[in-house]
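Suppose you are handed only two things: the residues of a chain and a line of SMILES describing adenosine-5'-diphosphate. What would the bound structure be? This form records exactly that question and the answer produced for it, so the two can be stored side by side and reused later without any lookup.

QUESTION INPUTS
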Amino acid sequence: MSYVKATKRTLEAIEGFPVERTGALLASAAEETLRAGAIVRSLRWLSEKRIRERTPENLARLIEEAVALGVPGDGEPRVHVHLDLDPHLPTLMIDKVRLQQVLVHLIRNSVEAMAEQAGGQLTLSTRLDDEGFAEVCVSDTGVGLPTTVAERLFHPFVTTKEKRVGIGLAICKAIVESHGGTIWAIDVQPQGTGFVFRLPIVEEGEAVA
Ligand SMILES: Nc1ncnc2c1ncn2[C@@H]1O[C@H](COP(=O)(O)OP(=O)(O)O)[C@@H](O)[C@H]1O
Ligand SMILES: [Mg+2]
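ANSWER OUTPUT
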């Protein structure tokens, strides 16, 4: 990135150099450099140890924080956020930072899927399912899953977005699974997508698989 910028400055300093012709090329080079950096960071991240430490966390609080981080406050068009959080969920033993990444990532995907939409709705819900797992659903009223990626959603480098790396859902899956959980996508009617993940309830002090 620094070399590209230095090249641009050097060319600009040459009198009479048609810098507008190279400007767009250099801008693309700079953008691709950033993208390459993002790919390297996410790969490094995927190969890292998944969980560092587990602490007892309140899922509802974690979700509220993730909404604050993931939904742009001044976004246009505005996204309506609806929370439907089970007040009886027990405290979970989780790696807070990692779980936060999962939530923020799913929220950002939803926001991106509703980018062209006025009055889109993002819903986050939690419940204790029949088998005693904590279940979290992040759903939107966005464009829905493109059929081209439906089969390989959680594979790394699968994306339909020009400026994205396509590694977010792969990271989400890795984090959820390292907590002993599972994650899957659902269709939302009449329009939109949801991602559901469930985590086993591990009490404080209990051995973790
Ligand atoms: N909420 C969603 N609605 C519609 N499509 C989605 C949603 N979340 C993910 N996708 C699709 O799955 C692809 C992969 O998602 P992800 O792994 O987060 O990569 P990225 O966001 O970098 O493209 C996206 O490019 C998009 O096509
Ligand atoms: Mg993404």
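WHAT STANDS OUT: The chain has two domains: 2-48, 55-200. The chain has five helices and seven strands.
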